[in-house]
Design brief:
With 199 residues, the protein is an alpha/beta fold. The chain has five helices and five strands, in the order βαβαββααβα. Helix 2 links the parallel strand 2 and strand 3. Strands 2-3-1-4-5 form a five-stranded parallel beta sheet, with helices on both faces. The chain has one domain: Rossmann fold (3-Layer(aba) Sandwich), CATH 3.40.50.300. Keywords: ATP-binding, Kinase, Magnesium, Metal-binding, Nucleotide-binding, Pyridine nucleotide biosynthesis, Transferase.
Amino acid sequence: ELFTMLSNSVTNGGKTTLAEKLKNMLPNCDIISQDDFFKPESEVETDERGFKLYDVLDALYMDEMVTSIRNWIKSPASSGVVTEEPQNTSDNVKNVYILIVEGFLLYNYEPLNELWNRRYFLTLPYEECKRRRSTRVYQPADTPGYFDGHVWPMYLKYKNELEENASMQVDYLDGTKSQEELLSYVYSDIIQELNKLRE
């Protein structure tokens, strides 16, 4: 049995940490990260202000990402996923393979839309998001004005498109909550969904 979930987020919303912690708690769980599919800097477009346009789908090898996800779905057992059971796993969910796909631009990409059992979206208010972003080191480094000029506007555009898509069921999570609280909520939600699949 396969269970696929998406963890999407504003920049620095905590999706990678959440995904890693979930992986340690869930049986047969694997992660595919959108960050692994960025094009090299030389292939990323630059706008008229000199900003590298990283926060758009064109900055990513999305075809390769789709192939990776579909290959995993075809044969999760051969993907190198660790099949040790976490201690607290109920018998009900032991024979399931779980894939977490985490990234920042996942829900507006049509070829992936049919694949998910659950979709989560971590949000942050502007000030907190900007603060967290400023504490991270990026390669290449953010140019002055990049967050306000490119990153935040693209996030708002993307989130707006999501909210306008009535058919898209997304669970919005408050990224300012503690990691423990978010983890507890998402873990419980996944277990509940897995139990429903078994009924």
